[in-house]
Design brief:
single chain, 437 residues, alpha/beta, 14 strands, globular
């Protein structure tokens, strides 16, 4: 029936449909989806400890803020989805506390795996879960906190929070952001258009790569700076404070050592195949999950005897071939003793932190699911990292690396140059943020 309307009527309908009806429909779908997500989390909490932590955090966060928030000093809000994003946000927080001590820091997490591990982080004044993104929660949270500046780390595009912050003219900065062509923002259709409207409310993007900047420009957004990844600054700080670990030194005993960091069962299966054919090289497993059932599973699958880190006092570590780290907080210091590092997660949702190992100028190996992690892509591109698909590839690469000291020295030089070229993102972000305002 719209075929015979006048041009101005056609234009009016087009305007109504594209500027009013579509956004309202997408907004309605989003609000419904958020509530379904919360319902699903509540059901999962009946079976999952992680979900129970999440629901408990959601129930307590707003009362916590009501009781704790003190507005005598201005507040900067830093949001991290989980532990990996925290490692990117941490150098930012610590530099703000050093250079701008007048500010308080509110640190929020969405995932229990971030909050539960870092809920006692001393550099933040307040630490809590982010209330789930309903209109009511976003309004109450922002009215309680009254942040002067907001940093979202890497990603996290919560529509209601971003919309309300924008309306209140509170600047929003996305730090260590990375974008890819396949993301919905860069596609066609009304869903993509709606998601782009969320991006348009961000004050400034600090992106990891030139490619991310070009993608933003392709949709008309030029409010970005290419700064790289703040995690490089974090791992450099880790090295400067790394601890000597006498038990690890005794275990290594001047022999070749592989450190498998944040390993999962598929990663461990490949390394066990290596162990079967190599009874000289020592291996340290630092599993991603350190709960007792997982440690016992790993011990039961090993072809040789092993020693647990928590039980190795008084043991003859020189004779042991496998050490299992059944505690958290020391992996970044253990890497300093490695000749080769294997980073877990590449046969699952994605690899863990490669930079913690590469900062010690050692070769890094991981599974095939690494393409979403720019630092791993770049390390592989410069010849300092290797991806494997099965145990045969892993055994071949490990034999080559462990037998060829000159090759390891060349890789060490590549690592040194790579890390040096990528330091300084934190200072650049804060310089621009405080000058922007």
């Amino acid at each position: 029936m719209f075929l015979n309307v006048k041009n101005e009527d056609s234009y009016s309908f087009h305007y109504f449909y594209t500027q009013i009806a579509e956004p309202k429909f997408m907004n309605f779908l989003y609000q419904i989806a958020i509530r379904f997500y919360l319902l699903a989390a509540r059901i999962s909490a009946l079976f999952s400890e992680k979900a129970r932590f999440f629901i408990r955090g959601q129930q307590t966060v707003l009362p916590y803020l009501e009781n704790k928030i003190d507005h005598q000093r201005p507040i900067i809000w830093v949001h991290c989805a989980s532990l990996g994003e925290f490692e990117q946000g941490r150098p930012l927080i610590e530099q703000i506390k050093k250079d701008h001590p007048a500010y308080q820091i509110l640190l929020t997490f969405f995932s229990p795996s971030g909050y539960e591990i870092r809920k006692n982080y001393e550099q933040a004044d307040y630490i809590c879960y982010l209330p789930i993104d309903t209109v009511k929660n976003a309004r109450r949270f922002i009215d309680l906190v009254k942040p002067e500046k907001v940093f979202f780390i890497k990603y996290e595009f919560w529509y209601n929070y971003i919309k309300l912050l924008h309306e209140k003219q509170i600047p929003i900065y996305l730090v260590s952001a990375i974008f890819r062509q396949e993301q919905l923002f860069f596609k066609t259709g009304f869903r993509a258009k709606w998601y782009r409207q969320v991006l348009q409310k961000v004050t400034h993007f600090f992106v990891q790569t030139e490619a991310s900047g070009r993608l933003l420009s392709s949709i008309g957004m030029n409010n970005y700076t290419v700064t790289g990844d703040t995690r490089f600054d974090r791992v450099a700080e880790i090295v400067s404070k790394s601890k000597q670990l006498p038990l690890i030194e005794a275990f290594k005993n001047q022999q070749k050592l592989i450190v498998a960091g944040s390993s999962w069962a598929p990663d461990e299966a490949l390394l066990i195949d290596f162990l079967i054919q190599d009874r000289q090289t020592k291996i340290i497993f630092a599993p991603h999950e350190v709960k007792e059932s997982n440690i016992q599973r790993l011990i039961g699958q090993l072809p040789v005897g092993s020693v647990r880190y928590s039980q190795c006092e008084g043991k003859d570590l020189k004779q042991a071939q496998v050490l299992i780290v059944d505690t958290i907080g020391i992996l970044s210091s253990i890497y300093r003793y490695a000749d080769v590092a294997y980073i877990g997660g590449g046969f699952g949702v994605g690899i863990h932190n490669t930079l913690e190992a590469a900062i010690y100028n050692i070769p890094v190996i991981f599974g095939p699911n690494y393409l979403r992690f720019q630092e791993a892509v770049n390390l592989k591109a410069v010849g300092a990292a290797f991806s494997v698909n099965d145990s045969a590839e892993l055994i071949s690469i490990l034999n080559e690396l462990l037998d060829d000291e000159k090759l390891r020295m060349k890789i060490a030089e590549k690592c040194r140059y790579f890390m040096a070229q990528n330091l300084g993102a934190t200072q650049q972000v804060l310089k621009e943020v405080f000058n922007i305002l």
